[in-house]
Amino acid sequence: MTSKELLTLRQILGLFRRIHIYPVYFLVPIALSLAAAIFEGLGWGLIIPLLQGFLSRDYSFLKEVPILGDIIAALPGVVASRDRTLFMFITAMVFIAILLKNILRYLSALGMSFISVRALHHLRKLLFTRYLTFGKLYFDQTNVGHHSAVLTQFVKGALKPLLVTDKFMNALFSLIASLAVMAFISWKLTLFALPLLLILHFSVQTIIRHIRRLSERLAENVSLLGKKTIEILSTMLLVKSANMETSEKQRYSTISDEQAKLEFRMSAFEKLISPLQEIITLFAVVILLVSMLYILILEGRSDVSAFLVYFQLVRNSAAKFGLLTSFRSHLASSVGPVAEVLDILDDKGKHYVPSGEKTFTELSS
Fold this sequence. Notes:
The protein has 14 helices and no strands. By secondary structure, the protein is mostly helical.
């Protein structure tokens, strides 16, 4: 991460501290994500012997597989002695692993969703309470439309990177589980695949820099559009009496059009990340396919099923890695909203009117 991205992350964590939501609250969703990744890796690992037995039409080799062989040895003889029952057993284990993975991932997302809505609630409440303490001169010098944008749009935009933490934790742990299974299948091929993921990572950085700059401009434009909306609607009688409808419509349309262009450009850059990583992944798969054939011939390996799983894991790892890199795009897009929220939390220029406990009886009579 760059120094600016780290600064944005520290500022977001500071906002969470201001609303009394601490990093320890994220431990339960993260732990659930970790458990889900373990079962995901277990599921992928079990698919290898499942496919190998299906292709060879013989599941007796399962008794010699470490750990799995010990489990099969503990089963009743009627199950362990027949290929059909062994197939049903290994299929059931794959199903259970995938089922538990999805249940744990759902619980993680549910916990993170609860934290998210409470965080948004407390930040909105904090900002609204701040507004109530500002002096009248502050509101005379600012626009109500901007304050409305802060309470509705910028609050969510400022906290977004951490409100989707569960997705990135799921991606990180899933990537680690996939790499572990890939290394188990062929550590040589995995060492060759890692640089390809780094190429994917660095190819996204230019896009992220553009998103960061567009975020700052978009935040300014959203505020300007909100100000203009409130200004026109609150002075509609004056606009009509001065016959300024056409002029105000043109000014509003210009600002709105500029916002639409900025939103489109940001959306275009964000949507470019997925096809770009898919193209790079395609080239990586071709290179890995050639490498796999070389290893199969050189080492005389016959476990084709393991390499079938390997290629699916490569695709899965590339997708998860791409999701991890998108965290930086979320940080970049939150730069503008974070700055606007922090400005409200700053005491500078708020024109406070100090309160006291002295009662002026002469004024009350």
